[in-house]
Structure formats: structure tokens, C-alpha cells
Specification:
- The chain is an alpha/beta fold and 481 residues long.
- It has 4 domains: 146 residues, Response regulator (Rossmann fold); 129 residues, Transcription Regulator spoIIAA (2-Layer Sandwich); 85 residues, Transcription Regulator spoIIAA (2-Layer Sandwich), CATH 3.30.750; 61 residues, Beta Barrel (OB fold (Dihydrolipoamide Acetyltransferase, E2P)).
- The protein has 16 helices and 21 strands.
- A hairpin with a 3-residue loop joins strand 20 and strand 21.
- The structure holds S-adenosyl-L-homocysteine and FE3-S4 cluster.
Length: 481
């Protein structure tokens, strides 16, 4: 263990060395999905090379970058509020501060942002971060700057992210960008462009580097990870045009998972997100084959009604989803499964909603994220369907499934009582400074007394109690056995 700590310190020293001569201060914050948080680490790396160190203090920032989310209207409102806050800080404390908007709102609103929000100097879409140095030069000369060009190639595979707010144990590794699925409610294909995959060699290199630096749990990230396909670069949709050689040497998601699992056999490997229509059984079989691939699949279904699934352009039926769930549970009996669900999609009737409820009853997810439908301008549903489910009904349906999920989480969490699980220590428990908090491979949070353990340790914990979402236990000390 000592060796691991040393390696980690070395990693930190390298990072500090890289930025020790920097003079300008960057305040960067992220909203929305894990991909945004991961992208901000790429941006921080690009900006470090431009002489910027990150700061947590808005009042001393030379540059503020906010990585934004467009997935629901509420997410955009949150960002608008942050812009008001930057405005106040600039006015009262920090007149030299410049403000840039990154991510999905930048891509969706483009120049409108510069018109609508006077505070904004810089607008940069998700594929244009390498242009930040040029754009910043424009801003430094007093001009607004914008680049929202989407790319067929960009994966940022050549950039080593600067890990922000890191616990030193868990990290995201981005493997694909964009999404081709065109779910009718979803703005992502418009803001993040077409699907393309990152060179597996650069992924493995990043995984190896993370291990060397003390990281023990990584999540391979993509909007639709199971559709990962490397054939030498280029868009997923152009794979058919690739040469026979390219096709023969291509790497799909299950192969990539295997490469990662073998490259670092003790590193915990997770992935997110899976669309049921793209999750193939060879992925599940690869998970079963390697102990270090964590037994958890985030498998959003959005609705339990075949009619609504079709209107959402989700390319599977409820019955096919059940078959997939049954197969996962047959191949990996202790696999945790989680969901995303939308209630109140246009035309959703009470009967459709009851299909969602009965689907949840069948699967009994470990946990989930549930939303009311939010119409997004430009999407197929936004253009062609009236947002006709009244807000009060949406809210009631949401509450119903939130309650149901809580009950299911409790049942699923209780299944671990009296068992011994492997927990990777990530941080101090929020509730007690004498307890560690970590996660099991199934992604369930577990707290236990600190004892002699430290952050980054894998600990066998006997579960003695639980709440609906958290396991409570005690470390099993085999040395006393
Ligand atoms: N594949 C993505 C999913 C993107 S959005 C990923 O990697 O996470 C995350 C979730 O937000 C979706 O699964 C869906 O449940 C929800 N969502 C997306 N668009 C929405 C909308 N217009 N209204 C409400 N919820 C939405
Ligand atoms: Fe959105 Fe569907 Fe892709 S939810 S990110 S279009 S898989």
C-alpha cells in the first residue's frame, strides 16, 4: 500500500510542476452530466498550457468558464442564475473578469448567448475546446469570441485531463462523443453532434496512468457507450464505408472493456450510459468474465409503454427490455441495474403511465433518476408534438414513481444485509468523521468505522444495517481470524 501512496504523490507532483509557473486564474464549474465534468478536466488541461491555474474563488478569477447543460429547461435556468451571480461579482469585486460559456447551451444558443447575456464574452461548443487559446486571444483584445463547430473527428484523446475536485480514487475516462440515436425528446444529438469513438490505445494509456497515480475506480463515459466502435477514426455512421482491414481490426465496446480489464486487473471498471437497444450480450458476458468490471448497469428505459417508447424513438419494446433484464440477471445474478425515467411525455395516458409502473415492478431497480418531460426546442418531439400532459399530472406521476423507486431501493439494499462486500474507500462519511464512505461494485454506498484503513483501500465489510440507499457495516479484519 505504501508504494501506491508514493505513486499517487508522484502524480500530484507532476501536475503541480506542470502548472507552477502559471499566473492567471481560472474558475471553472460544470452542470449536467458526467461528460460535462469530464470535459471540464480537458478544458482545465488546455487552459493550464495557456498559463491558467484553477481557483475556487470567483472574486479572484481572471476567467470564469461555465460548462452548461441543455437537457431540461430547469438545467438552463440554473445556468442563467449563475450568470447573474458572475455579473454581480464582476460589478462589485472583479471588473477585469471575463466569462465564457461552454457545453450544450453554448452549442444550442450560439450567438444568441452573446446577444441575450451581456456578461458573456466567449461561447464555445463541446467540440471546439482546442480553439480556446485563439478565442481567448480575441477576448483579451476586447472582442467577443465564438466557436460552436461540431466535429467528425474530435475526441480529445491526445489531452491528459487535469483532475478537478478529485478524491484521488475515482475518475471518468471519456470514450465516445456525440450520439446518433435521436431519441425524440433529447437535445444531445444536436448539441454534441454525431457519434465518434476515441482511439483505444489512448484510452488504455489513460487507464494505466490513472492506476499509477493511485486511482482505483474508473468510469468509461459516453452518451451511448455500447455503441463504441474504433476503426481508425471517423464517425460511427461511416463504418460501413471502412476498408476490410479497418473492419477486421475494429474494436467494439465489449473488446474495449476487455482491454481495459486486462490492462489493469485490479482497477475497478465501470461504464455509463447504456441504451438498451445497443447493449449486447457479449458486453454482459465480458462483465461476467472479469472480476474487476463492476456488476452494475445503468440502463435507462424512459417509459414502460410500447406506444410511448415508439414515439420516443427508443428502438426496443417493453418485452425486449424484459428479455434483456432476464439475460443480465441470468449471466450476472448480483448485477445492480439502475434507470432513467421520463413521465409526461406528450400523449402519455394514465394507462401508459401504469405500464411504466408495472415495468418498474418487474425490474425492481436498485436506484434511478426520474424526470418530468421538458420540451426541448429543435428536437423531433419539440417540433411535432404538443406538450399536452398538464404540469400537475406530470408532477403526480413523478412523485408516484419516486416513491415506488424508494421502496424498491430499500428492498434491493436489504438483500445485502449480513453479507460481506468489497468496498473501495473514497472519502469520509458526510455524517460522521469517524466513518469512511465508499461504494460496492454494485455502486451502492457503504459506510463503516475507519479503523486502520485509508482512502484508496479495498476493504471487506460485513453489512449489519442499512437505510434505503446506504449500507452500514464493519470491516472484516482477517488478520484477527
Ligand atoms: N445517454 C445519456 C442520456 C442523456 S440525458 C447519458 O449518458 O446520460 C440523461 C437523462 O435525462 C435521460 O436518460 C432522460 O431520462 C432525461 N432526459 C433527456 N431529455 C429529457 C427531456 N427533454 N425531458 C426530461 N428528461 C429528459
Ligand atoms: Fe439522448 Fe437518446 Fe442519445 S437519450 S443522448 S439521444 S441515447
Amino acid at each position: 500500500m505504501e508504494k501506491i501512496i508514493d505513486e499517487k504523490k508522484q502524480g500530484e507532483a507532476l501536475e503541480l510542476e506542470q502548472v507552477s509557473t502559471n499566473t492567471r486564474k481560472l474558475f471553472i464549474e460544470s452542470y449536467g452530466c458526467a461528460m460535462n465534468f469530464s470535459d471540464s478536466e480537458i478544458v482545465a488541461s488546455i487552459m493550464a498550457n495557456q498559463g491558467f491555474n484553477t481557483t475556487q474563488n470567483l472574486e479572484e478569477a481572471d476567467l470564469v468558464l461555465v460548462n452548461t447543460c441543455s437537457i431540461r429547461d430547469k438545467a438552463e435556468q440554473t445556468v442563467r442564475k449563475r450568470l447573474e451571480k458572475y455579473n454581480a461579482v464582476k460589478r462589485d469585486h472583479n471588473p477585469k473578469m471575463k466569462v465564457g460559456v461552454l457545453g450544450c447551451m453554448a452549442e444550442r444558443l450560439k450567438t444568441k448567448f452573446l446577444e441575450e447575456e451581456k456578461i458573456v464574452d466567449l461561447v464555445v461548443g463541446p467540440d471546439a475546446y482546442k480553439d480556446l487559446p485563439n478565442l481567448l486571444a480575441e477576448v483579451d483584445e476586447g472582442r467577443d469570441a465564438i466557436n460552436v463547430i461540431l466535429s467528425k473527428e474530435e475526441t480529445y484523446g491526445d489531452i491528459t485531463p487535469v483532475r478537478l475536485n478529485s478524491n484521488g480514487v475515482t475518475a471518468f475516462v471519456s470514450i465516445t462523443r456525440g450520439c446518433d440515436n435521436m431519441c425524440t425528446f433529447c437535445v444531445v444529438p444536436f448539441t454534441r453532434g454525431r457519434e465518434r469513438s476515441r482511439d483505444p490505445q489512448s484510452i488504455i494509456q489513460e487507464v494505466n496512468d490513472l492506476w499509477q497515480r493511485g486511482f482505483r475506480d474508473i468510469t468509461l463515459l459516453g452518451q451511448n457507450v455500447d455503441s463504441y466502435l474504433w476503426y481508425g477514426g471517423g464517425l460511427k455512421k461511416d463504418f460501413e464505408k471502412a476498408s476490410d482491414m479497418q473492419k477486421a481490426t475494429s474494436v467494439n465496446f465489449s473488446k474495449l472493456l476487455e482491454l481495459c480489464a486486462k490492462a489493469q486487473p485490479k482497477m475497478r471498471i465501470r461504464f455509463s450510459t447504456s441504451n438498451p437497444q445497443d447493449l449486447t450480450l457479449d458486453v454482459v458476458e465480458t462483465m461476467a468474465k472479469y472480476d474487476n468490471i463492476c456488476n452494475h448497469i445503468h440502463l435507462p428505459v424512459q417509459s414502460g409503454s410500447n406506444r410511448i417508447l415508439k414515439a420516443m424513438n427508443r428502438l426496443h419494446t417493453r418485452e425486449e427490455y424484459f428479455e434483456l433484464i432476464d439475460n443480465i440477471r441470468r449471466i450476472i445474478p448480483d448485477c445492480a441495474i439502475s434507470q432513467d425515467m421520463i413521465v409526461g411525455f406528450p400523449t402519455e395516458t394514465e394507462e401508459d403511465f401504469q405500464d411504466t409502473v408495472s415495468l418498474m415492478e418487474y425490474v425492481k431497480y436498485n436506484f434511478g433518476y426520474m424526470f418530468t418531460y421538458s420540451e426541448r426546442p429543435g428536437t423531433m418531439a419539440g417540433r411535432n408534438m404538443e406538450d399536452d400532459v398538464p404540469e400537475a399530472i406530470k408532477k403526480r406521476r413523478l412523485q408516484d414513481i419516486v416513491d415506488l423507486q424508494r421502496a424498491h431501493s430499500e428492498i434491493k439494499t436489504k438483500e445485502w444485509l449480513h453479507k460481506t462486500v468489497e468496498v473501495l474507500v473514497e472519502k469520509e462519511s458526510k455524517k460522521s468523521n469517524t466513518q469512511w464512505s465508499g461504494r460496492t461494485p454494485q455502486n451502492i454506498v457503504c459506510v463503516f468505522p475507519k479503523g486502520q484503513y485509508k482512502i484508496g483501500d479495498f476493504v471487506q465489510v460485513k453489512i449489519t444495517d442499512c437505510t434505503s440507499a446506504t449500507l452500514i457495516g464493519e470491516a472484516v479484519d482477517y488478520s484477527k481470524a
